[in-house]
Structure formats: C-alpha cells, structure tokens
Amino acid sequence: MLKTLITGITGQDGSYLAELLLKKGYEVHGVIRRSSGFNTKRIDHLYKDPHERDVNLFLHYGDMTDSTNLIRLLQEIQPDEIYNLAAQSHVKVSFETAEYTANSDALGTLRLLEAIRLLGLEKKTKFYQASTSELFGKVQEIPQKETTSFYPRSPYAAAKLYAYWITVNYREAYGIFACNGILFNHESPRRGETFVTRKITRAAGRIAVGLQKKLYLGNLDAKRDWGYAPDYVKAMWMMLQQDEPEDFVIATGETHSVREFVELAFKHVGIDIEWHGKGVDEKGIKKGTDEILVEVDPRYFRPTEVELLLGDPTKAKQKLGWEPTITFEELVKIMVESDLRLAKYELHKSNFKG
Ligand code: NDP
Ligand code: GDR
C-alpha cells in the first residue's frame, strides 16, 4: 500500500486530496496543528477511530516551522509521496505577518526537502509543492504559462517564489522527484470564508434569507482565473505519476472580475445587482430599489495588487491529460447553492434560539 503525507490536510485542498487518495487506496497521513478550537471540520467525515479496523487515515500534530517534528514524521511514515500544501495562504494577511509567512511557506518547504535528504529518501519519496499563480504577480505576459517570468507582489508570493525555486533546485541537485504545480485560484464550498469568492457566496446566501444587510469588498476590478478545487487536486496527483518530474500550470484559461462574480452569485439567489459610482464610491444596488447591497471598503485593498491572472493549461492537457470539468458559471452555482443551504440552516438555528 502506497503511503502519502499531506501537509495542510485540514485546508480546502488537503481535504479534497485526502478524499481522492483514500479512494485510490493510499494510506494517508496528515499534519494537523494544535489549536484551542476545532480545525479538522473539513476532514471529520474521513476520520475513523484508530481503534477500528481498516483505518487508512492517520493524523499527526506538527508544524511547518518545526524541523525536528517534520524529520521525525518522515522517519516514522517513510512516505512514497509528499504533498506540501501547508501554508499561510492569505495574500492580504501576508502583508501583516510577513515574517511568519516566509517561515512557514518558504522555509517550511526547505525543511521538508532537507528532511528527505537527511533521511536518504531522495530516491523513494516524490514531492509535490503547492506553487501558485501569485508568482506571476505584475502582468508580464497573457496568458501566463510555465515559461512566463515571475514578479511576486506580496510577502506571500515572495515566500512561494523561494519555495518554487528550492523545489527546482533540490530536483536538479539531488535527483528528488519534485514537482511544482503552479495552480491558479481554485474554489469550492470548502473555501476559507475570507477569500473573495466564498465571502461573496456566503453574503449572497445570508442576504437572501435576511441574515445580513451588506457586503463590503475591496478591489472589484481584479480578475482571476477561477477553477474548481476537486479538479485541481486531481492534477496534483497526476503530476507525481509522470515518468519525469516537471512543473505544470493548472488553470481554466478563462478570467473574470470580482464584479462579475458578485453579479452572478446574487443572480443565483434572485437578486439583480446594478453598479453605480466609481472607484471607492462604487456601490452594488438591488435593481429596481435603492437598497445598497455591496460597498467598497478600502481596508480590503492590498498595498500591491495582482490585477489580472489568466492561465494557459496547454502543457497539463497535453502531458497529463488534465482538463477542468467545471465552468465558471457552474462553480458560482455550486458555491451559492451550498451557502444558501448554510444560511437557511443558520436562520433556522437563530429562530430556534428565539
Ligand atoms: P488553506 O488556507 O485552505 O489551507 C492551508 C492549510 O495549511 C491548512 O491545513 C492550515 O492549517 C495549514 N497550515 C498553515 N500554516 C501551517 C503551518 N505553519 N504548519 C502546518 N500547517 C499549516 O489553503 P488551500 O487549501 O486553499 O491551499 C493549499 C495550498 O495551495 C496552500 O499552500 C496555498 O498557498 C496553495 N495555493 C492555493 C490556491 C487556491 O486557489 N486555493 C492556488 C495556488 C496555490 P489550519 O487548518 O490549522 O489553519
Ligand atoms: P488571492 O485570493 O489573493 O487571489 O489568493 P482572494 O480571494 O483573497 O483575492 C482575489 C482578488 O479579490 C480581490 N478582493 C478581495 N479579496 C478578499 N480576500 N477579500 C475582499 O473583500 C476582496 N475584495 C476584492 C483581491 O484584492 C484579489 O485581487 C488566492 C489564495 O488562495 C492564494 O493562497 C493562492 O496562491 C492564490 O489564490 C492563487
């Protein structure tokens, strides 16, 4: 039975990847962080009591900032594949926590690669690095592909740039089967609630049932190539099944603005939005009324912004046979429907409390 270690298993991608690998018959090990609250809600449905039979999912406490912990985990598990998904992954937050972001996202990747070397696992353990379209940052070329030059625009992207290159370097220097998946934005009902897509679909659901009045957003003009997370974790696995380790862009090849996402999400709950004003004064108004549902709040602006991301997934299609299965319209619908159900449940709970 193949063994895999997933860092960041409690995150959006980690949870979908764990599902995929368990279905494929892997023994899955995941790193979780100690927290004073519950942080395993995305994987609770996969977890079985270790005393039961046929248990294939094992969780271990750890942290990307703790070298000895990572070394010990690799020594115990001897994984055939590592998926390094753990990261402080919020771009705006990285401006506030730049040093911590570099420690976990950049040095954390180095720590794992060094652990592979130290334990002599170079020929056994394949390594996937969660690289990002944020590496492209300030537009150099459209669409962005594997050969497009990088121009990071945040502490997060700069940390991920180091992680990208150290992964390439350890592949070239020590022959480790290591791949960078340069993944463009991918979303789902499990997306963290402070990323823009989920923030919008949560608000659409809550406004529709009367639990919220307004949605405050930052830059409405930003454009992203948004795909569906379960499609993207499949690509991660496919990369590690190749004969040779390589880096791949994973994207849909379509780009849409935050404004378009808002319009479509609200349409799904029966609300037509009309835009009035410009820049920080722009407002999204419910058609046929004077009800302001969306306002711009500059606190959500970033000191340096990535204005436009559009990926070219041709290499992934040709070499991996990977293609996205969910369109932008379908993605918005999946997320809104899920968040509308959640809002109705919240409403029911609040009525019940009286
Ligand atoms: P999430 O933010 O949903 O999940 C991040 C995961 O990393 C969580 O499990 C989190 O644990 C864990 N984590 C954070 N810091 C540490 C640390 N210091 N030590 C151990 N674990 C830590 O991210 P996604 O699932 O969306 O993304 C997965 C990876 O892919 C990330 O590396 C992200 O940067 C990258 N990426 C994401 C894209 C996207 O659009 N989603 C696109 C391209 C790249 P906890 O639950 O305890 O917070
Ligand atoms: P991003 O995702 O920065 O692309 O990083 P996010 O959803 O945070 O922002 C996308 C764009 O929307 C604009 N925006 C807002 N963003 C947030 N979070 N909140 C707002 O209120 C808001 N209003 C407008 C942002 O300015 C930005 O332009 C995600 C993360 O998953 C990274 O880890 C990953 O590497 C990249 O995607 C690819």
UniProtKB/TrEMBL annotation:
UniProt organism field: Kosmotoga pacifica
Gene Ontology MF: a single term: NADP+ binding
Summary of the function given for this chain in its UniProt record: Catalyzes the conversion of GDP-D-mannose to GDP-4-dehydro-6-deoxy-D-mannose.
Catalytic reactions on record: GDP-alpha-D-mannose = GDP-4-dehydro-alpha-D-rhamnose + H2O
Protein's name according to its UniProt entry: GDP-mannose 4,6-dehydratase
Family: Belongs to the NAD(P)-dependent epimerase/dehydratase family. GDP-mannose 4,6-dehydratase subfamily.
Key words, A-Z: Lyase, NADP
Enzyme class: lyase
The gene coding this protein: gmd
Enzyme Commission number, as recorded: 4.2.1.47
InterPro entries: GDP_Man_deHydtase (IPR006368), NAD(P)-bd_dom (IPR016040), NAD(P)-bd_dom_sf (IPR036291)
Top-level division of the source organism's lineage: Bacteria
